[in-house]
Amino acid sequence: MSAVVCEAVCRTFHQGDALITGLDHVSLEIQPGEFLCLSGPSGSGKTTLLNAIGALDTPDGGEITVGGQRLGSLSRAELAELRLRRIGFVFQAYNLIPVLTARENVEFVMQVQGLSAARRRAVADEMLAAVGLAGLEERRPAQLSGGQQQRVAVARAVASGPDLVLADEPTANLDSHSSAHLMDLFEQLNGERGVTFVIATHDPGVMGYARRLVRMLDGRVVADEAQTPQRMAHE
User: Is residue 111 part of a domain?
Assistant: First the structure.
């Protein structure tokens, strides 16, 4: 069973009196365990496609299937459950909760899932250690650097055990050193846990990690090719 199937997905937006095409009949199939990058300039449709796959936005046409479930046939509650159980999100703006500690931010989704306090803490501390933040569990976002906040966001995204992680420009606010470490972590989670990664980026260094590169332009897929990963140098 495919991790994601997009069939002729369309999405338009109203901008004043104009109708803007965000996605133009996008068809794409992603297998479990893939490490895929969506590339293209701003406005090419990368983020729009991620939001549609993650059930954060609803297409105007076509169909998206995630883990065998057709999103268009699910209720709002069922979509929320799918996002909670199956999908992890890493946003460019981190989206951490300012009043919570790093540990509490990572625990948040697991708490909603109903895991016990002891289990949440154990998993959160394990994931924070995995992203290089052991010893910083009690710090709030304002006490962390941008790179550290992004690592907390990654730990939160994967702590709940998703099958699929969607990352939107995850290195946009990071220096090259932090970017390389973050991508190494994604690659490790992909290899060790079999998590499927779909990463939207315009960063050539991030694209180098992908084993499959899908190029978008004006809401369409214009190229879809396998490649040999070329990792960033650690400065």
Answer: yes
